[in-house]
Structures are given as structure tokens and as C-alpha cells.
Design brief:
Layout: H1 2-22, H2 47-61, E1 73-74, H3 79-82, H4 98-101, E2 123-126, E3 142-143, H5 160-165, E4 169-172, H6 180-184, H7 188-194
């Protein structure tokens, strides 16, 4: 009897292993072809709603100069330049525009080592302040110093080389904003009313 049980256990183990080996592996389908299925207006908008959408889209893609709001520190000179893939409002584009903007209009910025032409658009934060306290805040890459539309500006960049040596850098790529306007339409009272039904991890609370 014991031999039969042992044989059955061995046979069952072999079948499980064989099944695991034979199971098909997940395969990355790669970049999806065809037009982007995001970034456009919702169907059924009224004329007024469509006008709001088009105005917002234009503002999102506007390239800023110092006279209309750029600086004194910045990561790029337009929202749409960083949120561009697969359509305006998306994430980092194929080529990183943060390289060229570093010296645009005569700016005297040094491109940090973690910003590359073929790498992603990045926003950088410091883990800790110089006094050892938690930081976590965004430290913009560039300043308007040297630009032809910012005479007299001598603001310097953060010392990214020093902070990299301290292993004090963390990064984030552009988050797609598709549908963000719909989220804004949800009243705070509705969000708060749904809060008790969420698990702690979903509420951003450490278990």
C-alpha cells in the first residue's frame, strides 16, 4: 500500500512539473501599431464642451517663454513636450526633448548625466536634504540663466553630480493625463464617502 501511495505521489509530481514546462510563456507583443486610441475628446460633447477641450489642448501644447511664465526653474518649456506619447497628454516621447531645451535661447544649463537623448523624460527628486531630513520634493533640472529673454538672471542649477554620488536621486517619468478632467469632475464628498470601502493599501496607507 505504501509503495502504491509513493508511486502515485511521484507520478503526480512529474505531471505537475511537465505541465509547468509545457505551459505557454507570456510574450510581449511589442509596440501597438495603428493610430493612438487616446488623446481625443469624448464622443457626444456639446459645442461648448468641445470648445473647452480644444482650448485646453492648445494651452497644453503652448511653448512658454519667460515673458509668459517660464522659469525661473523648469523641466521643459511646454506640458505637451513631455506628455507626448502616444498622443498629446501621454507619456515621454521617443526622443527626449529635455536635452535641446537645456541651451535653448542661450540658456547656460548643463544636461545632467541621467538625461539622455534616447532615454526617457525625467523628473528628479532628492531623497534627503543636506541636513539628513526627508526631502522628496521635485528639483527642476534647469534655470533661465543665460536666456536672451532673462537678462541678469544668475540662478544656478542644483548640484545633480553631487547628489548622484550620494545616491540621493529618484526619478519619475511623465504620467499620462488622459481622463484627468473626468477625475476632476468627481466631487470631494463622493471620494470621501467611498474611502471607508477601500483597503488600507488602496488609500495610500501603509498596512
Amino acid at each position: 500500500m505504501a509503495k502504491n501511495v509513493g508511486a502515485l505521489l511521484i507520478l503526480g509530481t512529474l505531471l505537475v512539473v511537465a505541465g509547468a514546462v509545457a505551459a505557454p510563456k507570456a510574450k510581449d507583443p511589442g509596440v501597438r501599431g495603428g493610430p493612438a486610441a487616446a488623446g481625443g475628446p469624448l464622443p457626444g460633447l456639446t459645442n461648448a464642451e468641445m470648445a473647452f477641450f480644444q482650448a485646453g489642448l492648445a494651452a497644453f501644447g503652448e511653448v512658454e517663454a519667460v515673458a509668459n511664465g517660464l522659469g525661473p526653474r523648469f523641466n521643459f518649456d511646454s506640458c505637451g513636450g513631455c506628455h507626448a506619447q502616444p498622443a498629446t497628454g501621454g507619456t515621454s516621447p521617443l526622443g527626449n526633448p529635455q536635452v535641446a531645451v537645456a541651451t535653448k535661447a542661450g540658456a547656460m544649463n548643463i544636461v545632467p548625466s541621467f538625461i539622455t537623448l534616447n532615454g526617457p523624460v525625467r523628473e528628479v527628486r532628492f531623497k534627503f536634504k543636506t541636513d539628513g531630513k526627508r526631502d522628496g520634493g521635485v528639483h527642476n533640472l534647469y534655470t533661465i540663466a543665460g536666456r536672451t529673454d532673462a537678462p541678469g538672471c544668475v540662478l544656478t542649477q542644483p548640484d545633480f553630480k553631487r547628489e548622484a554620488a550620494r545616491e540621493n536621486l529618484i526619478f519619475r517619468v511623465p504620467t499620462p493625463v488622459f481622463g484627468a478632467g473626468l477625475i476632476e469632475e468627481i466631487a470631494d464628498a463622493t471620494i470621501l464617502a467611498n474611502l471607508p470601502a477601500l483597503c488600507p493599501c488602496c488609500r495610500g496607507v501603509r498596512p
